[in-house]
Amino acid sequence: MENFDWTSYTKKIAIKSTLTEIYNAWTKASELEKWFLKKVDFNRPDHSSYNKNENVVENVLYTWYWYLYSEPMKGKITKVNGKDYIQFTFEGECLVDVLLETDNDYIIVTLKHHNIPLDNKSKQYVRLGCTNGWTFYLTNLKSIYEGGIDLRNKNEKFSPMINN
């Protein structure tokens, strides 16, 4: 573990889809709710809300609600380019960059979670815990957009599991 990078990691997945569809999956509340979250609220800095089918822009604040967890996550959309890139805060001041690249009929989704603090709680819950979470949710993104099957556990009887 001496050379292990506790501050950053990258995950990649290939999804047979279109660039627009996968970009929307990351930037529209209605699409994020299909594969990632129970409920998404985007709010502009003036606190006015977004239409669920509107793409977010920079400096939009979010409140994300998960299935089976009562505490929402709050953060900020820090960068978007309207085509193939989005960055947002996650777990405090950590950053997540999502880059989308076209390769034939596939979109390569590269997710980089970085700026992770080096305290033991962040190492355990953010670096190790979120790695597992992103692996599952990227798999669910692929499942939804290639086949329509939502792999998330939404039944409180079965908590916690790898799919929530």
Q: What's the gist of this structure?
A:
The chain has 164 residues and is of the alpha+beta class.
Task: Characterise the protein shown here.
With 164 residues, the chain is α+β, with helices and mostly antiparallel strands. It has a single domain (8-158), classed as Alpha-D-Glucose-1,6-Bisphosphate, Chain A, domain 4, CATH 3.30.530. It has helices spanning 19-27, 29-35, 120-147, and strands at residues 8-16, 39-43, 61-65, 73-80, 85-90, 94-103, 106-114. Helix 1 (19-27) packs across helix 2 (29-35). The two termini are 28 Å apart. The model has no long low-confidence stretch (mean pLDDT 94).
- The total count of helices amounts to 3
Q: Give the low-confidence spans.
A: none
> What shape does the CA trace take?
globular
What series of H and E elements makes up the topology?
Answer: EHHEEEEEEH
* Beta-strand share of residues: 25-35%
Radius of gyration: 16 Å
Instruction: Examine the coordinates and then state which fold CATH places here, giving the name of the CATH topology.
Output: Alpha-D-Glucose-1,6-Bisphosphate, Chain A, domain 4
Described by strand count, sense and barrel closure, the largest sheet is: 7 strands, antiparallel
Number of strands: 7
End-to-end CA span: 28 Å
Helix content: 25-40%
Strand arrangement in the largest pleated sheet: 1-7-6-5-4-3-2
What is the mean pLDDT? Answer: 94
- What is the CATH architecture descriptor? 2-Layer Sandwich
Q: What kind of assembly state do the chains in view correspond to?
A: single chain
CATH top-level class: Alpha Beta
Please, how many domains? Answer: 1
Determine the structural class based on helices, strands and strand pairing.
alpha+beta
The CATH superfamily bears the name START domain
